[in-house]
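tokens incoming
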């Protein structure tokens, strides 16, 4: 078998050239990072869980008409996806005050927001993915006003879908991050949901206890990240209820 061509390696995923033109293979790593990669660990099986959970959400979103890059899951760690031009923005949708929003504005963590708030960060690890305004995005040509209008509409649809999925299994969707890509059909541009949707990119709290079921478990040393992600997968029916934890973490020095 010919060796696949590496296209890009990030903190949590590796992208390979796909088997057909216009496709890529997305590989989910076990690496966990926080605080702009200042904290690192290898959590055995995390990539498997995120692959399955992202597939679950992408398929569900596709079924309600949200365009995504997802084509199919290839195996336990890989997905076949549509190649796209990633817009250099992280789109954050917040339903409850937490994380950097609470820190920046002095709002108590857990405060319900009057409506979903959408924030944009410029994707640049060296700069720490800084928060940017729509004026910056348009002025520097990262996206047009029409793109931003479409991105906001897409993000709110994703929020509605994810909130409903989580509420049904006793989980509060606090916030989440998505990325959006451009694809071209002849001369016509479309925006599609890209990257992943998993507990790596969401804040998820148990509705009754407030227990964290997302990467904050790793950020704040609150216990086993694998157990938290496994719990989300079990509740959503992605894993059978009698399945055990996937792994134990191994820290990187």
């Amino acid at each position: 078998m010919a060796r696949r061509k590496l296209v890009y390696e990030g903190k949590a995923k590796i992208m390979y050239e796909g088997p057909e033109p216009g496709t890529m293979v997305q590989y989910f790593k076990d690496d966990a990072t926080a605080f702009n990669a200042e904290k690192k660990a290898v959590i055995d099986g995390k990539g498997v869980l995120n692959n399955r959970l992202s597939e679950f959400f992408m398929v569900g979103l596709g079924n309600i008409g949200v365009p995504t890059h997802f084509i199919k899951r290839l195996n336990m760690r890989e997905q076949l996806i549509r190649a796209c031009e990633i817009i250099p923005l992280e789109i954050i949708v917040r339903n409850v005050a937490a994380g950097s929003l609470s820190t920046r504005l002095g709002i108590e963590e857990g405060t319900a927001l009057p409506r979903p708030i959408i924030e944009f960060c410029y994707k640049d690890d060296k700069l720490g993915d800084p928060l940017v305004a729509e004026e910056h995005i348009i002025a520097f040509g990262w996206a047009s006003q029409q793109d931003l209008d479409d991105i906001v509409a897409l993000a709110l649809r994703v929020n509605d879908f994810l909130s409903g999925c989580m509420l049904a299994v006793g989980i509060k969707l606090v916030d989440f991050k998505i990325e959006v890509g451009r694809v071209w059909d002849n001369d016509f541009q479309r925006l599609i949901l890209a990257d992943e949707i998993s507990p790596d990119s969401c804040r998820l709290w148990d509705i009754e206890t407030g227990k964290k079921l997302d990467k904050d478990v790793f950020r704040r040393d609150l216990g086993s990240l694998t157990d938290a992600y496994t719990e989300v997968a079990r509740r959503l029916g992605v894993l059978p209820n009698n399945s055990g934890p996937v792994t134990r973490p191994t820290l990187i020095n």
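note: DSSP finds six helices and 15 strands in the chain.
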